[in-house]
Each structure stands twice: as structure tokens, then as C-alpha cells.
Amino acid sequence: MKIEKNIEDFDALGEDHIGTSSNTPMRQDAFKLSIEEKIDIIKDDVRHIMETLGLDLTDDSLNGTPNRVAKMFVKELFGGLDPKKKPSASTFENKYKYGEMLVEKNITVYSTCEHHLLPIVGKAHIAYISSGRVIGLSKMNRIVDYYAKRPQVQERLTIQVVKELQEALKTQDVACIIDAKHLCVNSRGIRDVESSTVTSEFGGKFKEEATRREFLDYIKLDTKF
Ligand SMILES: Nc1nc2c(ncn2[C@@H]2O[C@H](COP(=O)(O)OP(=O)(O)OP(=O)(O)O)[C@@H](O)[C@H]2O)c(=O)[nH]1
Ligand SMILES: [Zn+2]
């Protein structure tokens, strides 16, 4: 396949440039195939995996699985690789002059670990201090969901959420903490059911102890899954 860089598509993905640590590593021909073409190719790949495992795909319970999995990958679990799905982060003027921290906590995170393609399930907590703009509350949940719907490592997801909000809100004063369970740790390998992973990214004023403490006090990090 011809490799061509399509800068517009990458910009729409929210990636300023390809290959830096906080960007999702993408092939340069990532946008050459349509959604339908991707589903068609992945369907055959899933069928191949299942047949290699020895499964009889003429069984009426297994017959639809390759197509089902392909659709789920492209449209659901990894839908955040499609720049068209990027939520519009509508912001408004801070007319009410609200000057304190705003915290959106317990945002549900469903993502997929890029090392094992197993679920990451947890909660994200976001805080920002307005520099003149405010953002619709649901947009923060949508931004988390968009970046979560990719093969991910939790560190990158945390940073991507903060960068997106910093850009939308035109301020560095944004923070995100994610507390999540990785099924690759909980259900296989070391099989530690209890452990979870906490990641954080603190921008601007959140680098200061008092501001960071206020955020942590609001969320109390008592997340239950
Ligand atoms: N830093 C980081 N590591 C992750 C994340 N999700 C999964 N991992 C780790 O990625 C590592 C991959 O290590 P490998 O040794 O190549 O994989 P593996 O042989 O399956 O390792 P085990 O899980 O220890 O059985 C594992 O230690 C996972 O726990 C994440 O979001 N961040
Ligand atoms: Zn994993």
C-alpha cells in the first residue's frame, strides 16, 4: 500500500505531529481505508485467528463472530482512532466570573490496553481553573471517552486528555487523574485482582502544592469500580 502522510487527518486526531511520546503511534497511511474496508479486512483476520485456534466457524454461534468483532474494533473499542469522532469541545465565555476550580469527577473510563488488547476500566477526574472560558461539563466526559477508545497506555491517555482541554480552554491550568484496573494485570499474567493504576498530569497552577491538594481533596481518590 502506498504510504502517504495526510496531515489534515492527523490534525483532526488531535495530534500536533506524529511520533512524539504523547501521541498515539499511527501509521502514515492510517486514513487510506474506509471504515467498511477496515471491517472487511479485520473480519478475515479474526476468522483466521479463530480457525487457527481450531474453532469450527460453521457453528451458528461462532459464525457471526468475525464480523461482530471487526465492527466492535473499528466502530466501538477503537472508534477514537477516527478523527471524525473527535468531540467538539464547545467553550463559553465565563460570564459569571467563576474563578474557583471546577472538578468533573468519577468519569467512567473504558479503554483497551495496547499491549494485550484487554480492557482498562476505571475513573478519570478532571479539574481546571478558567482563564476566561468555560467548557460544557459533558464535553470533558466525551474527551475522555474519545481518547480512551484507542489502544492505550494509561500514561498517554492521561496526558492526551489534559492537552486537549488546555487547548480548548486556552489555559495551562488543567489536571487529570485516572485510577483504573488493567485486566491484563487482573485476569491473566500476575492475576492480581485487587491492584489498580493511578496516573496524573498536572498543568499550570496544579503544579503548586495547594492547588493540587484542593483537587485531591475534592476527589478523595476513593474510586470504586
Ligand atoms: N506503563 C504501562 N504498562 C502497561 C499498561 N498496560 C499494560 N502494561 C504493561 O505492559 C507490560 C507488557 O510487558 P511484557 O513483558 O511485554 O508482556 P507480558 O509478557 O504479557 O507481561 P506480564 O503481563 O507480566 O505477563 C506488562 O507489564 C503490562 O502490565 C499501561 O497502561 N502502562
Ligand atoms: Zn496489557
TrEMBL record:
Transmembrane segments: none annotated. GO terms for cellular component: cytoplasm. One of its GO terms (molecular function) is zinc ion binding. It catalyses: GTP + H2O = 7,8-dihydroneopterin 3'-triphosphate + formate + H(+). Keywords: GTP-binding, Hydrolase, Metal-binding, Nucleotide-binding, One-carbon metabolism, Zinc. Pathway: Cofactor biosynthesis; 7,8-dihydroneopterin triphosphate biosynthesis; 7,8-dihydroneopterin triphosphate from GTP: step 1/1. One of its GO terms (biological process) is tetrahydrobiopterin biosynthetic process. This is GTP cyclohydrolase 1. It comes from the Bacteria. The lineage of its organism: Bacteria, Pseudomonadati, Bacteroidota, Flavobacteriia, Flavobacteriales. The keyword Metal-binding applies. Its EC number is 3.5.4.16. HAMAP family: FolE. Residues 42-219 form the GTP cyclohydrolase I domain.
